[in-house]
Inverse folding.
């Protein structure tokens, strides 16, 4: 379970089971104070990091030496003023550098992450049922 606590205005601190707390906030033009990424930015970041972790692990097993790596994650959202402003599409673009990287190995690692291993991407594709409950304390 992750606990998310309000820290004033539109800022929240997340307390995941790992103990690695982090802030999320809204931009100042939406009433926040820019104290952290927005929840939607965090969602894209989670997809990129999850996929990259898989790709690196797979390439290491294939004895591929990666010296630099980034994933650019972009999302298309419904127009402003439309609610909810969900992502209608998400694109992950992987950029790798390394010593004699095999393009076939890289392509396969990205494919395996995308289709088999990345739990974040799999969750987004599955469109899980979301339930909301409430209590007054």
């Amino acid at each position: 379970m992750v606990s998310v606590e309000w820290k004033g205005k539109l800022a929240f601190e997340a307390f995941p089971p790992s103990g690695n707390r982090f802030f999320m906030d809204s931009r100042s033009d939406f009433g926040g104070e820019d104290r952290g990424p927005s929840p939607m930015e965090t969602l894209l970041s989670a997809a990129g990091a999850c996929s990259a972790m898989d790709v690196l692990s797979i390439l290491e097993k294939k004895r591929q030496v990666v010296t630099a790596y980034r994933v650019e994650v972009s999302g298309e959202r419904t127009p402003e003023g439309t609610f909810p402003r969900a992502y209608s599409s998400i694109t992950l673009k992987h950029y790798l550098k390394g010593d004699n990287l095999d393009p076939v190995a890289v392509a396969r690692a990205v494919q395996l992450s995308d289709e088999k291993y990345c739990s974040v991407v799999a969750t987004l594709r599955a469109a899980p049922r979301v339930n909301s409950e409430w209590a007054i304390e």
Remarks:
- The mean pLDDT is 96.
- The chain has three helices and five strands.
- Residues 39-61 form the longest helix (23 residues).
- The longest strand covers residues 65-77.
